[in-house]
Amino acid sequence: MKYTSLALAAAFLLAACTAGVKQGGPVYLAVTRSVEERVADALPRLTTEEKVALTHAQSKFSSRGVPRLGIPEVWCTDGPHGIRPEVLWDEWDQAGWTNDSCTAFPALSCLAATWDREMSLLFGRSIGEEARYRKKDILLGPGVNICRTPLNGRNFEYMGEDPYLAGQMVVPYVRGVQENGVAACVKHFAVNNQETRRTSTNSVVGDRALYEIYLPAFEAAIREGGAWAIMGSYNLYNGQFNCHNKRLLVDILKGEWGFDGVVISDWGGCRDDDEAITNGLDMEYGTWTNGLSGNASDSYSNYHLARPYLERIADGRAGTKELDDKAARVLRTIFRTSMSGVPHFGSFNSPEHYAAARRIAAAGTVLLQNDGTLPLKVPAGGKLVVIGENAVKKMVVGGGSSNLKTKYEITPLEALQEAFPAAEVIWERGYVGDTSSSYNKVDTGQDLSDPRSPGQLLHDALAAAEGADAVVFIGGLNKSKGNDTESADKEDIVLPYGQDGLIEALAAAVPSLVVVNISGSPVAMPWADKVAAIVQGWYGGSETGHALADVLTGAVNPSGKLPFTLPRTLADGPLKTERQFPGIRVDGEKWWQEYYDEGVFVGYRWYDTQAIPVQFPFGHGLSYTEFDYSRLALSRKAVSCAGSFGLDEGTEEVLRVSVDIANVGDADGAEVVQLYLAPPAGGVERPVKELRGFEKIALASGEGGKVTMSLPRRAFSRFDEDAHKWVVDPGTWKVLVGSSSADIRITAPIEVR
Ligand code: GLC
Q: Domain 5-86+100-336 falls in which CATH fold?
């Protein structure tokens, strides 16, 4: 009997093979083979149809696996600071599950403001655990687009105006996520620095600005962070849509950088059948619903990389070379994530995750100004008056695709009431801003309507402030249209809802007024010299209130630093013309054209070089203690400039910088020691200084320590777009070390031959 069945089985197998149906049976698990061996084993077993099915979505956030071979589907999830609630198969709206309320971590602008790689690793690990627990394979984040204009609606999701800061801060996040067998998908690649007409604007950028400003954070995520996925952006560059942009995806990403993961389109970002095949796109999502508006119950077989692709292969217009590459990359991603064979289980809504959210949000909080009024002193039986909508408005909901449904969100008012149980804590609205409370059917349950006029609101706020021991205004922006949100940019950096007038009036009545600005992008602060203290708070997620109260009460000594400049006015910035922002129509061009005429002069690179005074500079942030800098020491290998060198040769260390730091104040704290390089005078026009190193050091009161930073050759380089190489200019350079870009404490010259 046994013999017969064995013979039958062998015969069947033989017949099956000869019949051309690929051999069935499960593909190998990790335990016995490397990912590459498993890809090589699985790929030839797939039919053409199965390979094509891997390259496009089957639902809003998933794509097919290979059911016949036991290869699972691929599930993606937003967003960069929390796991988006489950949505319906074909809809943006949440599906109403009752088990998907997540931990809302701070927005990445807050993470950047910590200037702390440890915080970034903690963030990545925590959000990676939540993604794994929710059985998601690709996390659609982090975003690292440079803050080119303060008006960009999505600045809150990104990591500031400096490519080195963004690059250093994104690497640990990526590693932390991927330790959980979840792919980080860095986005939005590339030169996608606004929301205005984001699907129809062509970014016209010179190679020098591209390589020095707009690529480095992505390069770091890929080459140092080892990101397994990257998302093409909606806009065009060089006249091609970025979800299938040959220069960006084939020449630079997969060519120069050797990227072996998957390129995913933004939702609806794939716009062309042929380019999708040849220009480096591996997974197409969100098409038809054009990813941006409306929902269409839809036959996914109409996608660009679906029936049109099969037709081109069948009639010979397309070969299968690109298909094999796409399918191999998708298989590699699956073998790195859901089929890694390593038992990742993740965790969700854990006390550790909420504690991490609170710690990161506090570490990113920036003390901009303080006459000693902070930390708050409110005696037992005293009176604390809190004024402003952002003291109570829940902001985890909204903002676009990073919208979250969280288990709870502690507001600043709740946290301050907890922090001063023996005091009378009164709240006054002060102003009415955004009274909406839901997004994609996720609802905060708040009713923020208020019938009072602005005059009445002001009167009531001033009346409440009478006789208070402390008065804190908490305002800023929110996640509504025209504020910090996806798919729209701001009109100006002036605070909305009449807040400037309100703050001025409060300051006139309350000399010790503390102002907290909660925003994810720069705002103007014309009243800065009229108030006692200013704090830059962020969208801190579930624990935003506790984190802010921790800093205001002194439970946490603030150590955050600005990841972008706070200019006095928008007009002081580098974008002076329509053609620079938000772009113009040009005869003969189908799409809007936007010219990055300012080149590399973005953020402090502009304000410093033009010597334009700003409200608060890049890298600025105070502490409740003081730090002293001394003994700057340079030890170096010859920085032989030897003309120019290739993209890769710039990585070896050529200079080691050390500096002694002492905490000379009476509070324990942490300092972000920043290192800038000033190039030799003359030669090619370049920024007067650029950030090339930073380290955060915690020091107890009275304690001293040493910070050491090493600079690779790339730190001394500029990109020569004619030679397409990095070049080092000889001459006398200056090493500048300080507490912000404008607070340089100690310098040393260095000769570069
Ligand atoms: C959105 C965003 C992108 C997001 C994707 C899926 O339009 O641009 O960041 O991950 O679509 O929601």
A: TIM Barrel (3.20.20)
